[in-house]
Automatic annotation (TrEMBL):
It comes from Chelonoidis abingdonii. The gene is PPM1J. Transmembrane segments: none annotated. One of its GO terms (cellular component) is mitochondrion. CDD domains: PP2Cc. InterPro entries: PP2C, PPM-type-like_dom_sf, PPM-type_phosphatase-like_dom. PANTHER family: PROTEIN PHOSPHATASE 1J, PROTEIN PHOSPHATASE 2C. GO terms for molecular function: [pyruvate dehydrogenase (acetyl-transferring)]-phosphatase activity. This is Protein phosphatase, Mg2+/Mn2+ dependent 1J. Gene3D superfamilies: PPM-type phosphatase domain. Residues 38-451 form the PPM-type phosphatase domain.
Length: 451
């Protein structure tokens, strides 16, 4: 049952797939390699799972990342080289669990005895999808911790916004920490796959932290928000304000503490946390302080991404369906519809298998010469996971270059995931559109989730 602790399968990392629904007697018969009996699912019309055809307990995931650095490129460079390794490490314990149709176990081997009974009868249902989401979230936290530990030895300066995509078992997981965004363009429809994390979108979280831990404000800031700075002559008057619990506005009588600088000040792209930084999630920034003070801003910046999931097997895709990843340098000067129209216009001029599609699409979206002031780093790779391997696993790169790119108005990078067959489910072709000084990016790499 779901409360039982699970150990590795007997005989190593091999087992009969769960969709065969074999009895214990049939499993023993299947282990007799002298007879080599042919096994088939009990329900012949039942749709086969994504992993059909794989005898080994081994799993592959594909990964794309976009890292937009600020106050230096160190954090973006480090995250572009290591974040996928942390994701791989977090997923390694889940290899057998994700390929098993039964509910995930509540504990892994070594935590509780295998015959332990649950203390409570009610158990919260946990999906396999939520395990992958949790693994990605933990990977971001481990990456941020590594940046903090090694920032002095690696000379890592500043921080970065991180937008990562993981393709696993027919689903696309989009993880965003920062103000980059991703959209899916499916048959002309725009599907947002992330949202920006800025002082305005996370106002209540930031204010609540300032309310709970006023010492983080350094006696220089107030967690309350006002429409403008309060002047000393307005003490005692009633003015509009809102706190961490409010979406609307109300009036309060101005006190001495209200004269402090607001934790969140400004509007739109000019909004800042402690008058310093305009993004509220990302990696790094461990040494960031308020100007001319000893007040650290990192406690208000979260490294945990928001993860959204898109199930490729649930939709039919036409050849020009894509997933676009872009930094704020793209979205600040274009909107979703403009990007979708550009992508559609460009892709229609190319054959489905033409590798120049990604190159042309990137140029039309505003790509330009390499610019050292805009540390935007797109990366692409895939990993193989092994459930019981004690050695490090090889990394096979699908794209050999990590580069920087910029467009008028700020740094921008894009990636495109393109469909390869009209009317096919779970079938996308990947096209990375990062700038390569020596020519267009490598050809697409096929990720097929259909048996």
């Amino acid at each position: 049952g779901p409360s039982a602790c699970r150990g590795p399968p007997v005989g190593g990392g091999f087992s009969r797939p769960a969709f065969l629904q074999l009895t214990s007697e049939e499993l023993q018969l299947a282990d007799d390699h002298a007879g080599r009996a042919v096994q088939s699912p009990r329900e012949s019309r039942r749709r086969l799972p994504w992993s059909t055809g794989y005898a080994e307990k081994d799993l592959c995931f594909h990964y794309w990342g976009l890292f937009d650095g600020h106050a230096g490129s160190g954090a973006a460079v480090m995250a572009s080289k290591l974040l996928h390794l942390h994701i791989c490490d977090q997923l390694r314990d889940l290899v057998d669990i994700l390929q098993d149709s039964s509910p995930p176990p509540l504990c892994l081997p070594g935590i509780l005895p295998s015959d332990a009974l649950p203390r409570f009868h009610l158990e919260k249902a946990v999906s396999h999808e939520s395990l992958v989401i949790g693994a990605i979230e933990n990977a971001f936290k481990r990456m941020d911790e590594q940046i903090e530990r090694e920032r002095m030895t690696r000379l890592v300066a500043g921080g970065c916004c991180a937008l990562a995509v993981v393709y696993l078992l027919g689903k696309v997981y989009v993880a965003n920490a920062g103000d980059s965004r991703a959209i899916i363009i499916r048959n002309g429809e725009i599907i947002p796959m992330s949202r920006e994390f800025t002082p305005e979108t996370e106002r209540q979280r930031l204010q609540f932290l300032g309310f709970l831990r006023p010492e983080l404000l350094g006696n220089e800031f107030t967690h309350l928000e006002f429409p403008r700075r309060i002047q000393h002559k307005e003490l005692g008057k009633k003015m509009l304000y809102r706190d961490q619990n409010m979406n609307g506005w109300a009036y309060k009588r101005i006190e001495e503490d209200d004269l402090k600088f607001p934790l969140i000040y400004g509007e739109g792209k000019k909004a800042r946390v402690m008058a310093t930084i305009g993004v509220t999630r990302g990696l790094g920034d461990h040494d960031l302080k308020v100007y001319n003070s000893n007040i650290h801003i990192k406690p208000f910046l979260s490294c945990v991404p928001e993860v959204r999931v898109y199930d490729l097997t649930q939709y039919e895709h036409c050849p020009d369906d894509v997933l676009v990843l872009g930094t704020d340098g793209l979205w600040d000067v274009t909107n979703d519809r403009e990007v979708a129209d550009v992508v559609k216009e460009v892709l229609m001029d190319y054959e489905p298998n033409d590798p120049l599609k990604a190159w042309a699409g990137w140029l039309q979206c505003g790509g330009g010469p390499c610019c050292p002031k805009c540390p935007v780093l797109p990366t692409c790779c895939h990993h193989s996971l092994s459930g019981y391997s004690s050695h490090s696993l090889p990394l096979s790169c699908l794209k050999g270059t990590v580069s920087q790119a910029c467009v008028p108005g700020g740094g921008a990078g894009c990636c495109f995931l393109q469909s390869t067959g009209a009317g096919r489910r779970g079938h996308l072709r990947v096209m990375c559109s990062s700038h390569l000084p020596t020519g267009p990016p490598m050809g697409p790499t096929e990720l097929d989730s259909t048996p």
